[in-house]
Specification:
Strand order of the largest sheet: 11-10-9-21-22-23-24
Number of helices: 8
Radius of gyration: 22 Å
Strand content: 25-35%
Largest sheet: 7 strands, mixed
Length: about 525
Amino acid sequence: MTPLQRRAFLQYASGAAAAGTLPRWAWSNSPVQHDPFALGVASGDPTPEGVVLWTRLQPTPDHPFTAQLTVHWELADDPAFRHIVQRGQATALPALGHSVHVEVTGLAPARWYHYRFMLGDAASTTGRTRTAPAADALDAHLRIAFASCQRWEHGHYAAWRHLCADQPDLVLFLGDYIYEYATPPITTGLARVHTLRHASTLADFRDRYALHKSDPALQAAHAACPWAVTWDDHEVQNDYASAQGKGSQGDPAAFLALRSAAWQAFYENMPLRTASLVTPDFGALQVYRRLRWGRLANVHLLDTRQHRTWQACRATDTGGAAAVRPPDCAALADPQRSLLGATQEQWLDAGLAADAHHDRTRWSVIAQQTLFSPRRYPSGVVSTDSWDGYPGARARLLQSLARHAPRNSVLLGGDIHQNYVCKVQSDAAGGQPSRPEVIASEFCGTSISSRAGTTQDKVDAIARHNPHVLLARSDQRGYGLADITPQRWTTTLRVVDDPLRADSGASTQARFVVEDGRAGPVPA
């Protein structure tokens, strides 16, 4: 792709157009005979001046959408669109699955807005979004919801319905938005099934996102507020690591083609900026980034898949990572092994240093995929796919936190389908007699719908062997809420009553508080 072609590609992908130049409904009708906005709308990555608006046109067998289409958008102060703030148009390209990413700028900080898209006579549902506060503002309150892991078959998305009622300012989605699997042959105990095959092509991954986005509760959550999204393994393949996964040893080119298809589908279906497009062939995506909420919070959103080292002592070309005993796996102790990659580690270290400089940031948030704190199992084994499998990388991050000492550090995670609350200690082994210093707090959330894969008895045994673990629950699905003020951080763990019911109720499983200047959560 030539530089000129790439520039044109990025202009189309970003929805670049002159805003405010056309009167409302001054466009000619198009022959759309179905709802092209069946996948809903979304917004993401807010700044003090702007936000990303997203939609993806959904074809049908009778309306396949083979050509590029012009989509119009409006942003207003009010849900009735009586006061239009900006409007414009964007090109939905077949090459990008007819997705639209509009990067709106020139907005006021700390403001809520409403938006919608139009194609001919068809109009999307109305979404609600907001901008971040000004860089020097210390807001009185920020509510973040964090969630992950929403396998279609394992449960309905009642959690999203309850999350909407909680009215967050921002959703952090921490990975496993889709699962690549086909419906298992035995469907006993599943909430619902689908007929899609195991995803391996761009068309497969597009279909999988369309399946998940067909859920009305998930659509409502996207339309309720801006999101910031990152990925984990199931957006591509279970337990893959960088350029390696199942099949990569025998046919590395085939795995890279699968990965590129999966990453392209991820971009097409998420409210991401065009800055994430590192290469036009989707051989790389810039997923780790920062979202600053004035001086109140700075979110360091990480990518623990694209740049990681192959799992220690994992058999080559297998479908899953290993559980090993450290004495039997010398590679586990190799200090050069990384979960983030050297460049991202340095980027995070610099960000934490900047947070601490002149007390610039009240709450430094490290949002990533899985449980950061160590889990010492009674059996003595460790998982090689988690931070336990990368002890050198974890030690470097702990050293960074201790060296720079941001005012308050909180880690958020997901992946393990269990709720964990932990004291993050300077000693990565955790809970040693030397009473290591507590330097941060951690909240690892359960899944939206994916099963835990373990029992509460086993989780209780883990907690007994890990004194830094304050709560560990495996038996419920849900999400986390973080209410952040200059004085304290309050995490509420919300769980649904029955993930097999779309109309399930929800309740609070636990609530913990972190006081400003005092590392470590305590029960509220």
